[in-house]
């Protein structure tokens, strides 16, 4: 008889993100072009838990040079798989993107999904890290070679509002 270990309870993995945040954004100006030119802009977000930690919702707002971003992230924890799904929507589309799926290990959350960028299929990766109770970081990266290599193209540095 084989015993299977139940998934780790990650219900509260995103608890570090609850609250209001100021966000310093750094974005690669031309992803997947070989360019190393970055630009920065400021933003803010508010994240609140739902379902006793099994879900949360985040409202994000920023003003990059190309125009205002208003976004919504819905995160849902699946207790059977021990994984989270992250669903993103922008006010520009009013639709949920395909979910990013992943989990936290040793305080680092890694999430993967598929998307399209400038007409081509890409893999997408998000990485979440908490830098204590008042700071955290989110990074987005693209891969065009099936995940063999990744190009980080957006970094958000969160600082808790007091």
List the helices and strands and how they pair.
Layout: E1 19-28, E2 38-50, E3 55-62, E4 69-78, E5 83-90, E6 100-105, E7 108-117, E8 120-130, E9 135-143, E10 151-160
Antiparallel strand pairs: 1-2, 1-10, 2-3, 3-4, 4-5, 5-6, 6-7, 7-8, 8-9, 9-10
Question: Could you give a quick summary of the protein structure above?
Answer:
The chain has 162 residues and is mostly beta strands. The chain has strands at 19-28, 38-50, 55-62, 69-78, 83-90, 100-105, 108-117, 120-130, 135-143, 151-160.
What does this structure look like?
- Helices cover 0% and strands 59% of the residues.
- The chain has 162 residues and is an all-beta fold.
- Strands 1-2-3-4-5-6-7-8-9-10 form a ten-stranded antiparallel beta barrel.
- The radius of gyration is 16 Å and the shape is globular.
β-sheet strand percentage: over 45%
Protein structure class: mainly beta
- Total number of helices: 0
Order of helices and strands: EEEEEEEEEE
List the keywords.
10 strands, 10-stranded antiparallel barrel
